[in-house]
């Protein structure tokens, strides 16, 4: 229990002190007009209250990652908590804050626009295709997973649930941001926070031991090293590239730059708490890595969530907890499609103020998502975690370039960018889905490749326009 509270304190202190430092480095200016004020179009550029934006941002970035990833990551033992805390404070929250605030300085535009501005036009369309497919795939999977979980709980037909979810996705993608997302998401976020808090309180009141064996070496049942796979498994609870696709959407709704830290940095810290709680729930409820691993192998993370929630909160509370997790997935899925609409419209200069044009782009991205849902995405999804962390790494390098050209302390973004480069290189070199090399050789080679990236960074002299 002491370890859990210590981790919580680090997250809070990280927001208070390091978050304030990052904000000072960036130079948030409360007197600067934001895109929501300058370009208000009643559709995507809409001023929303800061508390609503915080709750929406939290719900958008969370998805299933801080729950599923935390449950799978804690198999490696309490070392996972170190990654959640330090990854969240020094990498994930920095990533989210800087990507959101840089977007805020450039009309709330997406990462594709920033890639073009900082790295040149030749990378624009390639990155657009990657990011567009990435988002549509996320949306498709985040429709199938909750449909499967709801089908199990309510015994409804899977196909009907898929139709309902995609129908909702269409409306959330098409309609102005304040009609559905701005109106209902804050309530969903409060539900999620309330249920997650109830679960950890119930664990306090139970006679379960939080962590049976507090050692920071790998406790994986097969003796697998936590490096580098744990850093990819636990993504959303520590750092996730998907968040960089969501922050620009909320950057279009902020009235004042002073709200950037609580919204972007704060939402990531909140997600860190969710990951911390679910990691603790997993290892405390099943008592050891072997038991948790066996459950995940037999019923998957969804089954483990249902069992933990029902045991701690009863049948009704368990179903409510499961529904809150489903809401996490759906509300990230629809904003993935909305982000895809915004990215394609930006790249091809398609005005989204006009309903007809917005309708056409929405139909296109949803059609691709529906098409993908008819296929087994297991093979592609196997690479999702790695691709997600690659996206986070690219975003951090973009942020580093921005800070360097503004003559600010770029190390706050560059250090986590270099760390994530090592992780991503080592993962694809070492894992069976990649080159299946030995861990030792993969580690050395990943350091060499990252060193090349560092040299390229310091030799890049592209100037960016003032913002």
Give a verbal description of the structure:
The protein is mostly helical. The chain has a single domain, classed as Amino acid/polyamine transporter I (Up-down Bundle), CATH 1.20.1740.10. The chain contains 18 helices and no strands. Helix 3 crosses helix 12, helix 4 runs antiparallel to helix 13 and helix 7 crosses helix 8. It is globular, with a radius of gyration of 21 Å. The mean pLDDT is 91.
Structural class estimated from helices and strands:
mainly alpha
For the termini, the CA-CA separation is 47 Å
Q: Could you give the order of the helices and strands?
A: HHHHHHHHHHHHHHHHHH
Q: What value does the Rg take, in angstroms?
A: 21 Å
Broad shape: globular
Average residue pLDDT: 91
Name the CATH superfamily classification: Amino acid/polyamine transporter I
CATH class: Mainly Alpha
Poorly predicted residue ranges: none
CATH architecture field? Up-down Bundle
Q: How many strand segments?
A: 0
Number of discrete domains = 1
């Amino acid at each position: 229990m002491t370890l859990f509270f210590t981790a919580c304190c680090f997250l809070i202190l990280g927001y208070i002190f390091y978050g304030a430092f990052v904000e000072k480095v960036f130079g948030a200016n409360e007197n600067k007009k934001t895109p929501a004020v300058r370009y208000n179009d009643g559709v995507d550029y809409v001023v929303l209250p800061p508390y609503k934006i915080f709750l929406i941002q939290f719900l958008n970035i969370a998805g299933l990652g801080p729950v599923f990833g935390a449950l799978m990551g804690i198999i490696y033992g309490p070392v996972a908590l170190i990654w959640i805390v330090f990854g969240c404070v020094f990498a994930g929250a920095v990533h989210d804050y800087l990507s959101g605030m840089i977007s805020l300085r450039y009309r709330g535009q997406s990462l594709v626009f920033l890639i073009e501005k900082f790295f040149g036009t030749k990378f624009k369309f390639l990155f657009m295709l990657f990011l567009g497919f990435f988002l549509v795939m996320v949306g498709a999977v985040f429709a199938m997973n909750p449909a499967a979980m709801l089908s199990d709980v309510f015994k409804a037909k899977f196909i009907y649930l898929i139709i309902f979810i995609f129908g909702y996705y269409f409306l959330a993608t098409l309609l102005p941001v304040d009609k559905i997302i701005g109106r209902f998401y804050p309530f969903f976020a409060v539900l999620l926070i309330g249920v997650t808090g109830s679960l950890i309180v119930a664990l306090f009141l139970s006679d379960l031991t939080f962590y049976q064996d507090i050692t920071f070496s790998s406790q994986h049942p097969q003796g697998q090293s936590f490096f580098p796979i744990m850093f990819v498994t636990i993504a959303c609870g520590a750092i996730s590239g998907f968040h960089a696709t969501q922050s620009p959407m909320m950057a279009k709704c902020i009235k004042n730059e002073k709200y950037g830290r609580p919204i972007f940095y704060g939402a990531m810290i909140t997600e860190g708490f969710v990951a911390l709680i679910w990691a603790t729930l997993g290892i405390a409820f099943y008592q050891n890595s072997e038991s948790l691993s066996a459950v995940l192998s037999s019923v998957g993370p969804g089954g483990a969530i249902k069992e933990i929630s029902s045991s701690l909160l009863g049948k009704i509370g368990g179903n409510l907890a499961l529904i809150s997790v489903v809401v996490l997935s759906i509300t990230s899925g629809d904003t993935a499609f909305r982000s895809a609409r915004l990215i394609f419209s930006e790249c091809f200069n398609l005005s989204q103020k006009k309903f007809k044009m917005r309708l056409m782009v929405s139909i296109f991205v949803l059609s691709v998502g529906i098409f993908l849902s008819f296929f087994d995405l297991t093979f592609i999804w196997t690479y999702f975690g790695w691709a997600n962390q690659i996206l986070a790494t690219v975003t951090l390098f973009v942020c580093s370039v921005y800070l360097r050209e503004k003559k600010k302390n770029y190390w706050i973004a560059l250090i986590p960018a270099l760390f994530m480069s090592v992780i991503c290189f080592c993962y694809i070199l070492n894992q069976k889905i990649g080159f299946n090399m030995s861990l030792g050789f993969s580690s050395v080679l990943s350091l060499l490749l990252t060193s090349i990236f560092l040299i390229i960074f310091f030799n890049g002299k592209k100037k960016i326009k003032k913002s």
